[in-house]
Specification:
Layout: E1 3-7, E2 13-16, H1 22-31, E3 38-42, H2 48-59, E4 63-68, E5 71-75, H3 87-92, H4 103-110, E6 112-116, H5 129-137, E7 141-145, E8 150-154, E9 162-164, H6 170-180, E10 186-190, H7 196-207, E11 211-213, E12 219-223, E13 231-234, H8 239-251, E14 255-258, H9 269-275, E15 281-283, E16 286-289, E17 307-310, H10 322-329, E18 335-339, H11 350-355, E19 359-364, E20 367-371, E21 383-385, H12 389-401, E22 405-409, H13 412-415, H14 421-427, E23 431-435
Parallel strand pairs: 2-14, 3-13, 9-10, 17-18, 21-22
Antiparallel strand pairs: 1-22, 1-23, 3-5, 4-5, 6-8, 7-8, 10-12, 11-12, 14-16, 15-16, 18-20, 19-20
Helix pairs in contact: 1-2, 1-7, 4-6, 5-6, 6-7, 8-10, 8-12, 10-12
Bound molecules: uridine-diphosphate-N-acetylglucosamine and phosphoenolpyruvate.
Uridine-diphosphate-N-acetylglucosamine binds next to helix 1 and helix 6.
């Protein structure tokens, strides 16, 4: 188990370049399976989850050529479908959430796709019904082995159809889109997820020869084609990382510039942090956060009632930033209700923040009320274990703002989604050490 030792209470300063987006990378990498031609991808983050998916693709026989930092060529011209039946695949496939998205492309191109119950954050139930109902709608036969949690779909040629998704699942929509692009006829997906990463996937597929319209809306219309060709693609900056840096700057009263953020793809993110009282300035395509020397004050609603920050499918606020909102609120002036509607086990990490002296009431598994200290009392350093990726980064932000030296164990959880985080934090003045 790897550990971070953090000496908190220091102001940071400088600029930081966000990494390529983790959750976009997981979709885009699976799409390379849709063509025998070369797909060149840039701005791939060097993080555990993405590297696990790249190695899974390699085991599937995809030829991989690293052409520079974060840039790779992929060619799936000799896919080894036998690997899907191996014991090794049953282990590798479990290692991350994103591996589920190999199923759609494999089913569409090779007539079958299998996956063990995928891993990812343990943040509550994470069902896969939307994915498999979508494949079944396209004509696939479905089987599930309850004993070893192994899912499978098979079909000679998928057939386009109309479908109304039971929920706007992000990876579910991506998976069904990647199956439908090679189906016979037209597929309409209503209640589709439409976040920027999905838009990026659809745009890339269209460059490969797919015919997807409605990109960016919740109704995608896909005219199936017989084959797809190679293309080149660049990942957007990671919006969850950008939100994490905004929170870090406010909590440590630091002046930070977050470079090349792709503002137009940030949706509600800048405004939610502004509602917490944080000054988020736009400077071209950068975000500038001035040092909040006098703290920051949470806004109330017009009628004076307490602000609620809740998650919702895009264009709502992403659930992946609620843990960061929560930690940032612990030092604000005022109170906020954080409502995590999507996941039921994602707020339990607040007990660590309470140990550090934060004023939080966990109302139920989905809701926590935070009453900020307005920096009148600093958080106390402590020893903690990172339960999931976003709780992990939130605890790291808490430790950087706390007085004294904190220890965070199990930081593999943070490394799953944040590239060289300790090195990048040290470059802006943080006192953080990695201990193996
Ligand atoms: C690899 C990847 O891309 N992971 C992201 C992806 O996961 P993932 O695609 O697994 O998440 P889903 O969009 O399927 O759903 C997330 C959770 O929200 C619930 N739900 C979803 C839609 C809805 O309308 N109502 C609802 O309650 C689902 O039941 C589930 O519990 O999207 C999540 C939601 O943005 C993010 O937290 C994950 O970081
Ligand atoms: C929940 C997350 O990831 P995953 O879906 O890969 O577990 C996340 O990125 O916050």
């Amino acid at each position: 188990m790897t550990t971070f030792i953090i000496e908190g209470g220091h102001q940071l300063k400088g600029s930081i370049q966000p990494q390529g987006a983790k959750n976009e990378a997981l979709q885009i990498l699976c799409a390379v399976l849709l063509t025998p031609e070369i797909v060149t991808i840039h701005n791939i983050p060097d993080i555990i989850d993405v590297n696990k998916l790249i190695s899974l693709l390699e085991n599937l026989g995809v030829k991989i050529n690293k052409i520079g930092p974060g840039s790779y060529e992929f060619q799936a011209d000799e896919v080894n479908m036998k690997y899907l039946e191996s014991a090794e695949f049953k282990e590798d496939g479990k290692g991350l959430r994103g591996s589920i998205m190999i199923v759609g492309p494999l089913l569409a191109r090779f007539g079958k796709g299998y996956i063990p119950k995928p891993g990812g954050d343990k943040i509550g139930r994470r069902r896969l019904d939307t994915h498999f109902e979508g494949f079944i709608n396209l004509g696939a036969k479905f089987r599930y082995n309850r004993e070893d949690h192994f899912y499978g779909v098979e079909a000679d040629r998928l057939k386009g159809t109309y479908m109304l998704l039971d929920e706007a699942s992000v990876t579910g929509t991506a998976n069904i889109v990647m199956a439908a692009v090679l189906a016979e006829g037209t597929t309409t997906i209503y209640n589709a997820a439409c976040e920027p990463y999905l838009q990026q996937l659809c745009k890339m597929l269209n460059r490969m020869g797919a015919k997807i319209s409605g990109v960016g809306s919740n109704m995608l219309i896909i005219e199936g084609v017989d084959s797809l060709k190679g293309t080149e693609h660049k990942m957007l900056p990671d919006m969850i990382e950008i939100g994490s840096w905004i929170g870090l700057a406010a909590m440590t009263k630091s002046e930070l510039t977050i470079k090349n953020v792709s503002w137009d793809d940030l949706g509600q993110i800048p405004n939610v942090f502004r509602k917490l009282g944080i000054t988020v300035e736009r400077d071209g395509d950068d975000i500038h956060i001035p040092a909040h020397k006098d703290g920051y004050e949470i806004q109330s609603y017009i009628d004076g009632s307490i602000l609620t920050v809740a998650d919702a499918p895009w264009p709502g606020f992403t659930p992946d930033l609620l843990s960061i909102v929560l930690v940032v609120a612990t030092q604000a002036r005022g109170a906020v209700l954080v409502h995590q509607k999507m996941f039921e086990s994602r707020l339990f990490f607040v007990d660590k923040l309470i140990d550090m002296g934060a004023k939080i009431i966990l109302c139920d598994p989905h809701r926590a009320t935070v009453i900020g200290h307005d920096f009148k009392s600093t958080l106390k350093a402590t020893t903690m274990t990172s339960p999931d990726i976003r709780a992990g980064i939130s605890l790291l932000i808490a430790a950087l703002s706390a007085k004294g030296t904190s220890t965070i164990h199990n930081i593999e959880q943070i490394d799953r989604g944040y590239e060289r985080i300790d090195e990048r934090l040290r470059a802006i003045g943080a006192k953080i050490k990695r201990v193996n």
